Amino acid sequence: MKGKETVQNKKIPLFKKRDFQLLVGTVIFWAIFYTLTKFGMMNLYWMHIINVSLIYVILTTSLNLINGFSGQFSIGHMGFAAVGAYTSATLTTIVWNLPSHGVGPFSLFILSVILGGIAAAFIGFLIGLPTLRLRGDYLAIVTLAFGEIIRVTINSIKFVGGPRGIPGIPRFSSFTVIVIFTFLSVIVLRNIIYSSIGRALLSIREDEVASELVGVHTTYYKVLGFTVGAFFAGIGGALLAHLIQYINPLQFGFMATIYVLIMVYIGGVGSLSGSIVAAIGITFLSEGLRLGLDKLDQVTPFHVGPEWRMVIFSVLLVATMLYKTNGLMGDMEFKVLIPEEEDENAKHGA
Amino acid sequence: MQNTVLKIDHVTHYFGGLRAVSDFNMELPEGAIWGLIGPNGAGKTTIFNLITGVYIPTKGKIYFRQERKGEFYMEDITRYKPHTIVSKGIARTFQNLRIFPNLTVLDNIRIAEHFRVKYSLYDAVMRNKKFKEEEEKIKEEAMNLLKLFNLHSRTYTLAKGLPYGELRRLEIARALATHPKLLLLDEPAAGMNPKETQELMDMILWIRKEFNLTIFLIEHHMKFVMGICEHIKVMDFGETIAEGTPQEVSNNPRVIEAYLGRKKYA
Questions:
Q1: Under an 8 A CB cutoff, do A206 and B117 touch?
Q2: A12/B139 Cα distance (integer angstroms)
Q3: Which CATH superfamily is domain B4-99+165-260 in?
Q4: What are the sequence ranges of the domains in chain B?
Q5: What are A281-293's pLDDT values in tens digits?
Q6: ipTM tops 0.85
Q7: B100, B118, B120: which to substitute to probe chain A, counting the most A Cβ within 10 Å?
Q8: pLDDT 10s digits, A34-44
Q9: For chain A, how are helix, strand and coil distributed in percent, rounded to 5?
Q10: Chain A residue closest in CA terms to B117
């Protein structure tokens, strides 16, 4: 009886210090770049890169949920992003016909992004149900195939422009919008991971048979993880469409998925922090290399065009595999991303 | 008369053309400790896999005692999925430990409590009051279990960093975290020295009392089986060749033959 009493009397705060720090950090980050842009002190090109890198944070963390945390090797992630992007862009541009300078009804845009996420989640669910019986390489091949099927299907639908894509998408994805969506995505993923659902996913990665035999409905949770991952890929795709204002099926090809996959593996499988760092780092590295290699091409007699970026990425990936097998972060997290009640050090002072 | 907890009714199982288990019958009484022995490849682990739903028997039925509103009945669990069978109250450990190596000791236990957690995905995302209360509850329960098994100093250690003996204890603790009525132990004393084996015997007897369990175990260690089991079944090549009390079994010529081979008459 006494044990029961203590549980009831203990105050369980709903808002923790670390959540607060995370929120404040994000607001400061937003405020700095927002003011810089407002006063024209920020190069708009680099601002665009920041926006893109934040969208990649959403794509990478969501892929990490599937590949890193539940251990299901999926390489069709951009297919789900395509579903999200096309759903929301079709709604805003073709169905509702909002003006392309992006001052239309904002709520409709938010609605379109959410619907994009839901559409991607639905497709993810449909694909996940039969394919998640497979493991390892087999699952990879099938998800790759489904990613391509999605792309080719979109390619052949006249209503969404076929191979020409959708031009003139309103530019709703402002820096503010992207920061908010990225923040919420990371928080939601973190909350899922640090819950019984997240632990179930982790146990599937560790040992599927043992997981099933301690009572985890493995099929259900694999599909759930896959669906949630697809949902956020859809959100990311929808935001991307309303940032670059033009989408076509080629953008969501296999190489685009590989790009996200590189971020996941360099950042660290099973680490949200790693995914965030890698997504931002690699987006900037990619752009930096583009400029740097261009410069190099001009000053040296050798031909070293920006296409050499891909070579550098490959070297980076091989180097990661050789010297830092678990990626930059391994499965470690930044402290602010671990809920206090889950952090042993906070209580045991180790 | 004692109640039967688990009834295995004429179970036969084939792997392709190989008959791994043939016509296995058993009625396990409540609160008993029964043992299953036999030479390597006799089909002992297959029996466990059949009970826990990893394999579905080619022929025969498996029943497990269930309670609904104070009434007991035998439920046919033959075709249930493993996770459903766990939720009905059968837990097991493995011959070659199957701990989740890269997770903490605490998480290993909490995963076994997962199917009893009552919050939804929505509650987890919002981290609302219901979520926090449930999490507190299962954590407290897990900590209690770790204390009972003297593992609480290892709560936040990754399981792969534990020594063998503690891993064995962790696996039993994890099985108990599912609140079983029947515990299946697959070679619990494997790789243990005589002192550890003795401790394990004491522990199993204590677990049965403390958690009100029925235990069915596989073991090669004869001293262990003879010392702890009330009733022993002996298998060889998928067939039940003998059963009875430890004394009856150890004097049975067929058992001696299965283990030591036939005497040469020259």
A1: no
A2: 14
A3: P-loop containing nucleotide triphosphate hydrolases (3.40.50.300)
A4: 4-99+165-260, 102-161
A5: 999 999 988 888 8
A6: yes
A7: B100
A8: 999 889 888 88
A9: 75, 0, 25
A10: A196
